[in-house]
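Hi everyone, sorry if this is the wrong subforum. Our group has a chain we'd like a structural model of before ordering constructs, and none of us has done structure prediction before. Sequence below.
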Amino acid sequence: MALSKIFTLRYYAQNTGFFLLLFYFFFGIVPGGQILSYHYTLIKGFTGSLDFLALVCFIWLLYNLKCMMFILNALSAKEHLFLYGTIGLLEGSRKWKTWYWLHLTLYTPVLVYSGLAVLVALKLQFYPQAVIILLFNVLMTIFPLWFYDRKVKHPGTTSFLARWQHRVNKTFRKPLWLIYIYELLNNNIKTLAISKGASLLVIILTCSLMGGEYDERYILTGFLVCLLLQSLIVYNHRHFDDLYLSLLPQLPLALWKRYLQMGLTYLLLLAPEYILLIYRIMPAAAPLHLLLIVVLGVSVLMLLRSLLYFPGIDQDKYFRWLLLIIVGLLFLTLARLYWYGVLVMQLSAYAVFLSRYYRYEAPLEKVD
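Answer:
Right subforum, don't worry. Here is the predicted structure as tokens:
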């Protein structure tokens, strides 16, 4: 009971907003009479496609890591130091049962839904998928126990990830265009994972709903939705530059090289979407169209970042410009005028970057 108050009850209390949003997504967006058919269709979709199932398993993995980090952080809190003298004294099967039950109480939402997915997969005779889901969740409930036990036995040691990051910082010299990507991977991994997971889900749904006949307009429309999901990361890029890289314009670097580095940053940022999308459409898409997708995505993000060099572009104005650009590209996509859109975006982005980069001044409230 004491462990439930320390871990389980506190976990669900701290993540009330997260679970309310999750509840709305699974039960609030569909009429009450269609909830069963909605979930049956959803489960049928990801159990019938290995790519979709891989993405769902990745999302479950992220949730499992969320549970693990909560327990490890709780063990590191000063007010919970007494746990090392209680749980640390347990031995044998009792110790492992305690850790297993504790982790299971946090992982239960995924476990319940994955159990329903196994039943649906068996009903539809998707036996390999059912085995994959079953084994995956068994692994998700077992491998965290080693980390908990190690934390109790070695409370003062740093994690493997922290040691790895420290070693990378010492041995790897990051170029300028990689600094923001490194920041996302270290301090904003949750935002990055959510945006990437949503984007990959959109790509899988787009390719699955397209059917057997390839239509580049259908693909590009879905890809524009992915770019919408990355827009907040681009907006935060300015905030990061204002806080940590405000002296960057004083470096002796040509302006065209700075512009090229910005393009490399967003090319790497969109790499997961490019890899999955090209993998899904490679047999049917022409090489020129694959190049179009790559250039289009980078051009949209470069234009959005360039617009942020204008003074007074707050979040509201930024999203107005974003919607205007996406709607304009949508009309050009429907008219098959793709390359005109890319040309207009690149010329506009470079013109704004050229005229505003050295004139931009970070607002004082952002750097204090």
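For your construct planning: The chain has a mean pLDDT of 84. The chain has two domains: 2-157, 176-367.
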